[in-house]
Amino acid sequence: MDASTLITKYDIIGTPGGFIVGSGIGSDYVEVLVQGSKLACECFNGQMDMNGRCEHIIAIESGSIGVDGNSIAQIDQGTADFYLSQISNIEASIQQNRDSAETQVKNIEDWLESIVAKDERRMSYYEASLDAWMRSSGLKTKSLAHGVMKLRQQQPEIVIQDELLLLSDKRFVRIVPEKEVIDKSALRKHVVNTGEEVIGISVKLRDAKFTYTTICPSENKPNDSR
Ligand SMILES: [Zn+2]
Fold first, then answer.
1. Domain ranges of the chain
2. Fewer CB within 10 Å, N side or C side of the chain?
3. What whole-number distance in Å separates Cα of residue 203 and Cα of residue 189?
4. How far is ligand 1, taken at its centre, from the CA of residue 33, in Å?
């Protein structure tokens, strides 16, 4: 048997920060990051080996696959389906991490709320005592070593009970001018239907938008499409 057939073929996909490397359908794909002039792989061997020379890094360095790290590889239908399953797994992982973070944020918020409420209860005792002391001493302002206290007369609070009745008294009415704004949906409809390039706008034609829907691995239920 030809020795070269024993060598694993690696699928190397360029990403903004490095590469995603796997050995095809059904295998685990790992992330290899470019860190300065070095490559760092997240796989077990990559983490354990001090020189960080796991099979994924060797595959990238040997460049034997012929897939340029920066270009999108030509794939077949089987690989396309496998890539969709990878996206589905990643989405599940993101959701799991979000849920986990949310739980922890909730716990921390609950803790903060309870500790703050306790401190505020303690503070309110001192505030009430100081307030009463200022009133009973007839002081408007008092400066002490640890702070300044003031008792200030407040403006009366005005509550409007009958707005209609009040509007008939023109002394207290002002007119807010009507504002003209662009009706964007009417504009789009007109441009799409007539093709007219209305003065004051420019129209950019856009390429077909790629979207996808994956099947959730655990529930076998479609996720939101992108
Ligand atoms: Zn690796």
1. 3-74, 77-137
2. N
3. 13
4. 10
